[in-house]
Design a protein that fits this description.
The chain is an alpha/beta fold. Helix content is 25%, strand content 31%. Pfam families: Methyltransf_11.
Length: 210
């Protein structure tokens, strides 16, 4: 089994074996989300299902995706009629071109090399419809409570922390990463749903149609 998948399966089998709880970070995008009322929203790296639950409770259809079978199995305990897909982002996204209006990646895009991250974003761009919206949150280089600057350095701001690969972003890197997108929102925010305050970047970008 892939080492990283094994790590995450163990996490979801233990520490996160509880009811998903969500914050309200998606509230500000209500008008954009409403455009996808009749089109499934892809929750990419759904984990324990925080955003999946948020969306389902508000009447959206969701495709919940993760590479941890344990995460998806746990999520199935808390909601019915789930549409789930288990795959590794690095292998591409198993969706048709221009097939969805909104993709969300909440704290799941910061586990890859720079080249892998760029490749995943190209896949996200491929799957999104014209002017489609990509919403994500990623680790900040100021996220000291959750490992920023710790571990064995692999690339700039990308570390092996006790076997777990983890990336942290600054604004310059994010603007470079999304230079071929229309940036609607980018800001460093606090997340307070954990035991300690987490510092993360929140980004909303739209697909450019050249």
């Amino acid at each position: 089994m892939d080492q990283q998948k094994d790590i995450w399966n163990k996490i979801y089998d233990g520490v996160l074996n509880k009811m998903p709880t969500y914050d309200l970070w998606l509230d500000k995008y209500e008008k954009e989300l409403m455009k996808s009322k009749d089109i499934p929203i892809i929750d990419l790296g759904c984990g324990s299902g925080n955003d999946t639950l948020y969306l389902i409770e508000r009447g959206y259809e969701v495709i919940s995706c993760d590479f941890s079978e344990e995460a998806l199995e746990k999520l199935s305990h808390y909601t019915n009629n789930l549409n789930i897909k288990c795959f590794d982002f690095k292998d591409g996204l198993p969706f048709e071109n221009n097939s969805t209006q909104v993709i969300i990646s909440d704290l799941s895009l910061h586990y890859f090399t720079w080249n892998e991250t760029q490749s995943i974003l190209r896949e996200i761009n491929r799957v999104l419809m014209k002017e489609g919206l990509f919403l994500c949150r990623v680790n900040s280089t100021n996220d000291e409570n959750y490992g920023a600057g710790e571990g064995l350095s692999i690339e700039e701001n990308y570390y092996n922390i006790e076997g777990k690969l983890k990336r942290f972003f600054n604004e310059k890197q994010l603007r470079e990463l999304f230079k071929e997108w229309k940036i609607e929102y980018i800001n460093e925010n606090e997340i307070n749903r954990y035991k300690k305050v987490k510092i993360a970047w929140e980004i909303a970008v739209k697909k450019l149609n050249k």
